[in-house]
Amino acid sequence: MYGLEAINANNGWSISVVGVSIVFSGLVMLSIVISQLYKVLALLEDPSRIKAFFKLKKVRKKQAGKGPEKQAMDRETLNENQKEIAKQFDLLAGTMQESFSLPRLLLLARISDLKDPYSNLDQLLKTKIIVPDGSGFFSWDKDRFGKTIS
Amino acid sequence: MSNIKDILKCSSVFGSLEKADIERLGMLFEIRQIKPGDILAEAKEAAGYFYLLNKGSILLALEDGRSIVLNERGDFMGMELVSAGGIYKTTLTVLAKGSVFAVSRMKFLEIIREDSHAAASINTSWRKYLESNASFVKYIEDKSLPENF
After folding, report:
1. Residue B96 forms beta bridges with which residues?
2. pLDDT value of residue A38
3. pLDDT tens-digit profile of B58-76?
4. Using a CB-CB distance cutoff of 8 angstroms, which residues of chain B are in contact with residue A55?
5. CA proximity to B75, closest of B35, B126, B38
């Protein structure tokens, strides 16, 4: 017995399908690992970010544990003009890395001729749209930005 | 509240000092009004003053792009956080209107180099303050050399 007949008789089709699936999923996993490798390398270059990550997690947990009244006190609001400027800051922050330098953002805001860049940046910090990551860099909280702007 | 003694008392760096030490330290500070965009210190320039925040918000930008924002009454901008070898390593930019109390760097360093309970207390509190506000700035143990700051 040879050829297709032999394949059929010995479950060859299902074995080959299983084999192909295993190889394919292995390759998918490998590509995912390689695509995220730059993050691991960034952490190795700057280990303080690992500490900062856990610190940020702790702060968020602490904030979540606050009562609704305390949370409301923390929440600053923006007027219509400030919302417009916040949108412009959002665009500028979008051109930077997820964890960015605040002085750099301020410089971009000044170069872009945004209105009152200093006080508006301060307002974004007070509203916690811009949050420190604990390692000297800052991140843009998209969720809070969306809620504040809407 | 704009009385220097009250601010020193509520400061996490100076709050644990004795009343007499607060009186003595308070004499060294002078008030300055600040507005958004003011530069209190520029990196690479001679470090003449350290600052204690009364009201407002200040961005401390290090040369490597890192920064912190201080906006609580009693926050202190001094020593290894802002200078090294008598030169500012940080640019202090005012984000929100308010006021600060400035203290001569040399006079302040004289106080913390004393062999006294006050100096030890400031150093201990300063280490904790640095750890909680700017853990990425290396704490300098040896306070004997003014060149360190």
Report:
1. B57
2. 86
3. 999 998 999 999 999 999 9
4. 135
5. B126
State pLDDT tens for residues B93-139.
999 999 999 999 999 999 988 888 899 999 899 989 998 888 888 77
Four-point Cα dihedral B2, B4, B8, B11, nearest 10: 30
By the CB < 8 Å criterion, does B116 face chain A? no
Which chain B residue has its CA at the smallest distance from A125's CA? B69
Per-residue model confidence as pLDDT tens digits over A50-107? 766 676 666 666 656 655 544 554 567 888 888 999 999 999 999 998 899 999 999 9
> What is the spatial distance between Cα B119 and Cα B114, in angstroms, rounded to a whole number?
6
Whether the CB of B128 is below 8 Å from some CB of chain A: the reply is no
> Looking at the partner chain, which of B36, B61, B64 has a beta carbon nearest the beta carbon of A116?
B36
Q: Which amino acid is at A140?
A: W
Burial of A124 (0-12, 13-18, 19+ CB in 10 A): buried
**Domains identified in chain B and CATH numbers:** 4-120 (2.60.120.10)
State how far the Cα of B94 lies from the Cα of A119, in Å rounded to an integer: 9
The domains of chain A are located at: 3-45, 48-149
ipTM higher than the 0.85 cut: yes
Q: Nearest C-alpha of chain B: how many angstroms from A98?
A: 14
Among residues A91, A97, A100, the alpha carbon closest in space to that of A145 is found at A91
pLDDT band at A147 (very low <50, low <70, confident <90, very high): confident
